[in-house]
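[agent] plan:
  1. take the single chain provided in the ticket
  2. run structure prediction with default settings
  3. attach C-alpha cells to the ticket
  4. add a short note for the reviewer (M.T.)
[agent] executing step 1
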Amino acid sequence: PGSTNLHYEGEMVIVIGDRAKNISAAEADDYIFGISVGNDVTERGYPSGPFDLLRAKGGDTMAPLGPWIVPGLSYDRLGLVTRLNGKVVQKSSTRRMIFSVAEIVSILSRYMTLEPGDVIYTGTPGKTRAMKPGDKIEISLEGVGVLRNTVGKRQ
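[agent] step 2 finished; step 3 output follows
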C-alpha cells in the first residue's frame, strides 16, 4: 500500500540445502543446494523509519524468483542481465560481487541458523529505476534461466 517508487533489483539467489550454523567459508558449498535468479523488488518511496526495510522489501509479491533452482553450478563468473521493457538496464557478472557466495553463507550463519529451503538474495549490481504498472521485467542469470514478471496495478 502507498507504493510510489517501486524498483527492480536483479540478483543471484542462493538456496540453502542443509542446516548451517557458524560455518566457515570453506565449508559453505556443502550447505548450498543451488542457485536461482530473483528480483528483490524494493519500494523506495517510503520515508525512513524503524520499519523502513520491512515496508520497502516485505510486501506481497516483492521477491519473485525462479524459474529454476540449479544445483552444482559454478557461480563465481555468471553473467546477470536485467531488462526493463526489452531494454538492458543492468549488466554485470557474479565475479564483481563484493562478497563471494561462500562468504555470504558463512557470515549469515554466524548470526542465524540457515535452514533447508532458505533463500539469500545476494545484492543487485549498479543502479535501478522505478517501474510502473504494465512494465515487463526480465532478469537472466547465465546457466540458470530467465525470470519474467509484469508489474501489476496496485491492489
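[agent] step 4 note for reviewer: The longest strand covers residues 32-39.
[agent] ticket updated
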